[in-house]
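Worked Example 4.2. Consider the chain below.
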Amino acid sequence: MSRRMAPLAGVRVLDLTRVLAGPWCTQNLADLGAEVIKIERPQGGDDTRGWGPPYLKDSKGEDTSEAAYYAAANRNKKSVTIDMATEAGAKAIQELAKHCDIVVENFKVGGLKKYGLDYESLNVINPKLIYCSITGFGQNGPYAARPGYDFMIQAMGGLMSITGERDDQPGGGPQKAGVAVADLMTGMYATVGVLAALHERNRSGLGQHIDMALLDCQVAMLANQNMNYLASGQAPQRAGNAHQNLVPYQVFAVADGHMIVAVGNDSQFRAYCKAIHREDLAQDPRFVTNPQRVRNREQLVPILAEIMQSQPLQYWLTLLESVNVPVGPINNLEQVYQNPQVQARQMKISLPHPIAGQADFVASPLRLSASPVQYHSAPPLLGEHTEQVLQDILGLDLDQIQALQG
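Applying the procedure from the previous section yields the following structure tokens:
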């Protein structure tokens, strides 16, 4: 099959974001072929450039100046340093916006107005501009002016009330997720919103303002837990590694570690019981259907837990996979990248890097058959593309570019 142009080829994005939620969105757009121009402060740039260790390693195994955190969300972009706090710097960014299709920013509400870089100002000079604002709490409401960070949003948005071991168990209590899921989910929702607005612009010829809030996205992503509450009036509680609506669907200790058993329907439960030589459990009136198993989990789970501890991990994986019961090991990241499925899907890529030489990165999970994601550049050094972009797009000379550095 012949390859077609990248889905977003010809689309230009002005990236006024830093840290994670905004850069995650713009990295998605860059992976899909958009030209993403990341505007950074001349001194220090994106905050996450300093969020280390760890750092990328050079060919001698020594740390570079590039933090791994920054590298996670900024591939395929161009870095341009401009001091927007100066009149000339703000004006240059305004001029860039005239030549862009999309702006993504994550400044506090109203924070860009004094530079003439808010939606209302840029809409006047470029009515086709799609402008996406990412904040903690959105553009309106009593919390709009507050700063919002992933950790506090996980707490305020309900995630930590349903994450972690039960309060009556050892180690029980509120627990955040292992990655900044509020930031990441907001970046994903922002990507969807931008692509939807881009498609709508094909009909109307006009841009629009997209208002993304971490708290909104955190609330929305609770999915079935939201509906568990709305349908019952009872707030779900922490259940550790068990599932609120399915049994057995949890971590079990085995003879040499732990594993996941994820029984999703009654036929799988019958197959599971047959495999562990306890067909009587599948015929027990307390456990025949999933609703009955959920109601009687306190009786069923200890029986299964004792059985699972009798054999090692590989025994259970081989046996239960053979009867199509969903199971899996609990891998650390070293094991993840050694997994043959992860390797077959090429989830680790290597890109040339101006300091590190050749560095490993995570691939995009997007798989498009005719216009696949392309990896044309590693996360850029601070200001790596300043001269190129400002000369090519705005026609500035070196003295004018130097003046924009503050």
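The chain has two domains: 12-221+344-403, 249-330. The first strand starts at residue 12 and ends at 16. Compare this with Example 4.1 before moving on.
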